[in-house]
Every structure is written in C-alpha cells, then in structure tokens.
Design brief:
Jelly Rolls, 190 residues, elongated, 4-stranded antiparallel beta sheet, alpha+beta
C-alpha cells in the first residue's frame, strides 16, 4: 500500500484522514503470469493500480491479437470504455508477469472524486496521461514508417525489450513478428 500512497503524495499532499478513506477503498489483488484482469465480454468493475508487474491490453480480430497498450508499475489500468459505461469490454487485459495491484470499484472511485478535491485532480491527471499516450501512439502508427516505429521502440523503451515478449512488441508497433526480427537483425546486430 506504500507504493499507492506515494503515488497519491506525488500528485498532492494527502492528509492522514484522507489517506485513511482512500486506503479503505482499495483492495490488494494479485494476478499470476498470463492471467486476465479482464476478458472481452466482461464488465470492467474495477480500476487497477499496478505496484509490481506488467499488463498488456489487446483486442482480437479475426483470430489475431492486436496489442494496444502496456502498463507498468505505478500506473492505473482498466478497460476504460467498459468501466465508464458499464457495457461489456471489447478488450482483454493480461498480466505478462506476476502482477500485484490494488483495485477500486467505480462507485468507490467516484465517491473519492466527490469527497476530495485531490480525488478529482488524480482522476484528471490519470485521464490526461492516458489520452496523451493514446494520441502519441496513434500519431506514430499513422505518420511513422514501420522502421521508424521499430527504432523508436528500441531507443525509447529499452526496459520493455527485457520484459515483454517480442511478438507483443511487434503487434504494439503495428508490424509482424517476422518484420520485427528482420529489423532487429538489420539494425541492432551491426
């Protein structure tokens, strides 16, 4: 719980009274490697704060997995559209490592938003970061060549290369695993 407390305190000072209320709303939960936090068709009842591990968000189209996001320590993850609307999720969220997290129900989260200015601020910060990440990824998929996306990943996310299987990285940058391997051989093994 200390990691979650530190995350909140990095955004704004949290009074001991507010922390007690916040703390009471989160439930510790663990996922084994490859276990799903949510699957397509489920209702996303929780938002998760990751303290250890990695998750992968993906869709399945015509039997093919399309990775759209990775989340690491000190980040929130959820099937946002389902969480927000109550509709069934269209995505999957999978733990790529043993993942320790804290989960909070939507009603409890909204209670924190209304009860504490800090809650609203944190909600805004989380959504702004998520929107920025999505916009940057969308721009690179639309504007950059596959080679540029590969090189961007190699230069900017070296930590990902050690922790995430290559086929998921390839899917994330919109190339086939074979193309990823070819680029890796051509540009990294010189």
């Amino acid at each position: 719980m200390e990691t979650l407390k530190q995350f909140f305190n990095n955004q704004a000072t949290v009074s001991p009274e507010a922390w007690e209320v916040i703390h009471s709303k989160f439930i510790e939960f663990n996922f084994k490697k490859n276990e799903y936090l949510i699957s397509e068709g489920q209702h996303a009842a929780y938002k998760f704060f990751i303290t250890k591990g990695i998750t992968r968000t993906f869709y399945i189209k015509e039997g093919k997995e399309i990775t759209v996001d990775f989340n690491f320590e000190n980040a929130f993850v959820d099937a946002y559209a389902s969480f927000l609307t109550g509709n069934p999720s269209r995505c999957y969220i999978q733990a790529l490592e043993h993942t320790k997290c804290y989960k909070i129900k939507k009603d409890d989260l909204y209670q924190l938003y209304s009860q504490y200015k800090l809650g609203e601020r944190l909600g805004r910060i989380i959504v702004e970061k998520r929107l920025l990440d999505k916009e940057l990824r969308e721009a690179t998929l639309l504007l950059d060549s596959p080679k540029e996306r590969f090189l961007w990943l190699q230069e900017n996310h070296k930590d990902w290369l050690q922790r995430i299987p290559q086929q998921y990285l390839a899917s994330y940058i919109g190339i086939s695993p074979e193309t990823y391997s070819r680029y890796k051989k051509a540009y990294l093994n010189q």
